[in-house]
Inverse folding.
C-alpha cells in the first residue's frame, strides 16, 4: 500500500493533550462567580451582577492587590509595550503601514518609526512617502517591537533597530499567543542551523541562518539565494516540531523547541504530521523539560 | 475565493522547495497530509461523513427522497449536490461570498459523478426513483478543498442506507409505494465505481498534490482530475487563471491516474475497516 496517502479513522484519534504537571490552576467559565463579595476592583474579563463578581471569559484568575481580572486561555493578541512581534503588511496608506499582528485591531507602523535604508536619522520627506511601497508592500512580513498602545487598543510598532525589519525567505507559523513564553530574547539562532523569531503575538518565523543579517536596515530581501535541501529539512522539521508543541499546548521557547527537535530525530520530517508522532514528541519534550528543571 | 497574501520571499521559498521535492512541511510532491474520517456522524441523515484533512474540515450529509425520473433517463435515479460554504471557514464566505466557489465545486462533482451507475436507484421506470440529496458543508478551509470534498462525498454515499421498498401499487401514472416498516431493513448503494477528485497544483515547473493554502497562493493554476478506482478519468477541468502546455496536461493526467487509484484504494480500506467495527462503535464527531 502506498504510504503517501493516509486516511485514519476517528476511533483511532489520539487526544491532543499532554498530562499536566504541577498543581492545576482553577479555571473559571463565563458566568461563574469569582468572589461572593463585591469589595474587589473589577478588572478585564469580569462583570458585576447581583453584587457579586463574575467571569465573562473562560480563563484563569489574576489578582493584583484588590484588582481581580480573568485572563482568557485563548484570545487574540493583547499587545504590551516592548513585545517583539511578527506581522504582515495589510495596507500602505498615508505615512503609515497597516500591519496584521493577530490583535483585535490592525496595528500601525509609522513611516517615522522605521529605519530607512541609508541609515542616519533624518526628517521624512515627501519623497520618502512616495517611496513607501519600495520598502514594504502588501503581504510583506516584518519583525517589529510594540512602541505604544493607542487609546482604542491598537498597537503602534517600530522597527528602529537592526534586529527588526523585513523578513526574507522562511516559513511563518501561527499559534496561540498564550503559548509564547516571554523571555530575554525572542530571536534565536538555533544550533541546528536555523533562526527562529518567536513573536509574542503568536506568529513564529523560521528562516535559514544567514551570515550577514544587518546589511541595510532590514529592507534587503535576497530572492536569488536558494536555500539548500539540508537547510530546508531542518526548517521543515522545526516547523513541524513547533506545530506539534502548539497543538499539544506546550509553551514555546528556545529550550522546548530544541528538545522537541532532538526528540523528533527518530521520525522522518513528513511523519511529524501524524497526530500520534506529534503527541509522542510533546510528551517526550515535556518529560525532558521536567528532568532538567528537577536537577 | 479564500486565499492568503504572501510576500515574494515566502513564495520563492515555496517554489524552490517544490523544485527540490521537499515542501515546507517536509512532504514530497506526491504526498498527502494525514486525513481523518468518520462516517455516520449525523443521526438524521440517510448517510453522512466527516473528513478532516489538516485544517480542511468537511461534513457531508445524504438524504434519500422519492422523486420522478427525468424523461431522458427513465431508468436511473438522481443525485444532486449542494454545497454550503460556512462563514466560519473564512470571513469571505459571509453572505453570498461563498456562492461562486460552491457552484464551482457542485458542478465539478456533478460532472465527475455522471458515470456512476444509478440504476439501483430506480424504483418504477418512468414513474418513480430515489433522489439523493448530497449536502456538503465546508467548515474550515486549509487548502485542497476539491479532493477533501470528493472523498467525504464518497464516504457519505458509502454510508448511505436506503429503505427497502416492500410493495408497489401502480395505477396509471400514480405510484403508491410501501416502504419497509423495519428501520434497519435497508440496502446500500455500490459506490466502488464513484470517482475521487485529484487536484494537481502547478507550482513552478512541477505538479504537487494536496496543496496547502500557502501553496495554492503560489500557483496560478491547478488541474482537477476525477479518477475512478480503476484509474479511468471521468472529467478534467482547470481552476485558476493560468494556462498549461499540452505536454504538461498529459503528464498531469498520467500522474493523477496513479494518485487517484491509490486514493480510492486507501479510502476503500478505511471505510471497510470502519464498517467492520459494527454499528455500535463509539461516535466521536467534533468532540475530543
Amino acid at each position: 500500500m502506498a504510504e503517501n496517502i493516509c486516511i485514519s479513522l476517528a476511533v483511532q484519534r489520539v487526544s491532543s493533550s499532554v498530562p499536566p504537571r504541577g498543581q492545576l490552576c482553577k479555571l473559571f467559565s463565563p458566568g461563574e462567580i469569582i468572589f461572593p463579595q463585591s469589595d474587589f476592583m473589577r478588572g478585564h474579563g469580569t462583570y458585576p451582577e447581583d453584587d457579586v463578581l463574575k467571569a465573562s471569559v473562560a480563563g484563569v484568575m489574576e489578582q493584583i492587590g484588590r484588582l481581580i481580572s480573568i485572563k482568557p486561555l485563548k484570545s487574540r493578541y493583547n499587545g504590551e509595550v516592548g513585545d517583539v512581534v511578527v506581522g504582515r503588511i495589510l495596507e500602505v496608506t498615508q505615512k503609515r503601514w497597516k500591519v496584521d499582528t493577530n490583535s483585535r485591531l490592525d496595528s500601525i507602523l509609522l513611516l517615522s518609526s522605521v529605519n530607512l535604508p541609508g541609515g542616519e536619522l533624518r526628517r521624512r520627506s515627501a519623497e520618502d512617502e512616495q517611496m513607501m511601497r519600495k520598502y514594504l508592500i502588501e503581504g510583506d512580513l516584518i519583525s517589529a517591537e510594540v512602541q505604544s498602545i493607542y487609546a482604542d487598543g491598537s498597537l503602534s510598532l517600530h522597527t528602529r533597530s537592526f534586529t527588526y525589519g523585513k523578513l526574507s525567505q522562511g516559513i511563518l507559523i501561527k499559534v496561540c499567543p498564550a503559548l509564547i513564553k516571554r523571555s530575554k530574547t525572542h530571536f534565536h539562532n538555533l544550533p541546528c542551523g536555523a533562526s527562529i523569531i518567536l513573536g509574542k503575538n503568536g506568529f513564529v518565523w523560521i528562516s535559514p541562518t544567514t551570515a550577514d543579517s544587518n546589511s541595510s536596515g532590514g529592507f534587503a530581501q535576497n530572492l536569488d539565494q536558494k536555500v539548500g535541501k539540508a537547510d530546508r529539512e531542518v526548517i521543515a522539521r522545526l516547523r513541524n516540531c513547533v506545530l506539534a508543541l502548539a497543538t499539544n499546548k506546550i509553551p514555546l521557547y528556545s529550550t522546548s523547541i530544541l528538545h522537541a527537535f532532538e526528540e523528533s530525530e527518530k521520525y522522518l520530517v513528513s511523519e511529524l504530521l501524524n497526530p500520534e508522532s506529534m503527541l509522542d514528541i510533546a510528551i517526550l519534550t515535556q518529560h525532558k523539560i521536567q528532568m532538567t528543571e528537577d536537577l | 475565493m479564500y486565499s492568503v497574501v504572501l510576500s515574494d520571499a515566502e513564495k520563492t521559498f515555496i517554489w524552490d522547495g517544490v523544485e527540490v521535492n521537499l515542501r515546507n512541511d517536509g512532504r514530497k510532491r506526491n504526498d498527502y497530509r494525514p486525513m481523518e474520517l468518520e462516517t455516520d456522524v449525523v443521526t438524521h441523515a440517510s448517510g453522512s461523513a466527516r473528513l478532516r484533512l489538516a485544517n480542511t474540515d468537511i461534513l457531508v450529509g445524504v438524504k434519500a427522497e422519492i422523486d420522478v425520473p427525468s424523461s431522458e433517463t427513465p431508468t436511473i435515479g438522481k443525485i444532486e449536490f449542494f454545497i454550503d460554504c460556512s462563514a466560519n471557514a473564512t470571513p469571505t464566505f459571509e453572505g453570498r461570498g461563498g456562492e461562486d466557489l460552491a457552484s464551482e465545486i457542485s458542478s465539478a462533482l456533478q460532472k465527475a459523478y455522471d458515470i456512476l451507475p444509478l440504476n439501483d436507484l430506480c424504483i418504477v421506470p418512468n414513474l418513480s426513483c430515489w433522489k439523493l440529496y448530497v449536502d456538503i458543508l465546508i467548515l474550515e478551509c486549509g487548502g485542497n478543498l476539491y479532493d477533501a470534498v470528493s472523498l467525504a462525498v464518497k464516504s457519505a454515499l458509502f454510508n448511505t442506507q436506503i429503505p427497502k421498498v416492500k410493495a408497489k401499487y401502480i395505477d396509471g401514472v400514480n405510484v403508491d409505494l410501501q416502504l419497509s416498516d423495519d428501520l434497519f431493513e435497508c440496502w446500500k448503494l455500490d459506490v466502488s465505481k464513484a470517482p475521487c477528485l485529484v487536484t494537481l497544483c502547478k507550482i513552478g515547473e512541477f505538479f504537487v498534490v494536496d496543496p496547502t493554502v500557502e501553496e495554492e497562493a503560489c500557483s496560478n493554476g491547478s488541474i482537477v482530475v476525477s479518477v475512478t478506482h480503476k484509474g479511468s478519468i471521468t472529467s478534467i477541468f482547470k481552476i485558476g487563471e493560468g494556462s498549461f502546455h499540452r505536454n504538461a496536461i498529459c503528464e498531469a493526467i498520467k500522474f493523477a491516474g496513479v494518485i487517484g487509484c491509490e486514493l480510492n484504494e486507501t479510502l476503500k480500506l478505511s471505510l471497510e475497516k470502519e464498517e467492520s467495527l459494527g454499528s455500535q462503535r463509539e461516535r466521536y464527531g467534533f468532540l475530543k
Observations:
- The radius of gyration of chain A is 22 Å.
